[in-house]
Design brief:
two-stranded antiparallel sheet, Alpha-Beta Plaits, about 120 residues, 4-stranded antiparallel β-sheet, alpha+beta, about 20% helix, single chain
């Protein structure tokens, strides 16, 4: 099992979410975050005073999935998040030791199984 954590631009979320739902992987967590990377800060002027914003707003997209689905999800994120400009984001892949469904007590890969009804 793996966990993908991707930092993306806000406008990339809906196309990514739509495509993942189409391929049967609609489960995800999204959080608004701020961060800095290689992208330089933006200088803004407000009432005559210039200020530089270094922490840029992004979305953190988290998806827990079976090993077999990792490449498909990465491909979807890259397809919809890539603009070729600084600030497109990052994708990290982590190993997951276990996953448990609180409602039923199920654990392991069956908790992360794709939603078959959505792929047809």
């Amino acid at each position: 099992m793996k966990k993908i954590e991707a930092f993306i631009r806000h406008e990339a979320l809906e196309p990514i979410r739509d495509r993942l739902a189409q391929i049967g992987l609609p489960s995800m967590t999204v959080a608004e975050v701020k961060g800095s990377g290689r992208q330089r800060g933006i200088t803004e002027s407000y009432r005559g005073a210039e200020t530089t914003i270094f922490l840029r707003p992004k979305l953190r997209l988290e998806v827990a999935l079976d090993d077999d689905d990792v490449e498909r999800v990465i491909d979807v994120i890259l397809e919809h998040a890539h603009t070729g400009s600084p600030g497109d984001g990052k994708i990290f892949v982590f190993d997951l030791e276990d996953a448990l469904r609180v409602r039923t007590g199920e654990n392991g890969a069956e908790v992360l199984a794709p939603h078959d009804s959505l792929t047809k």
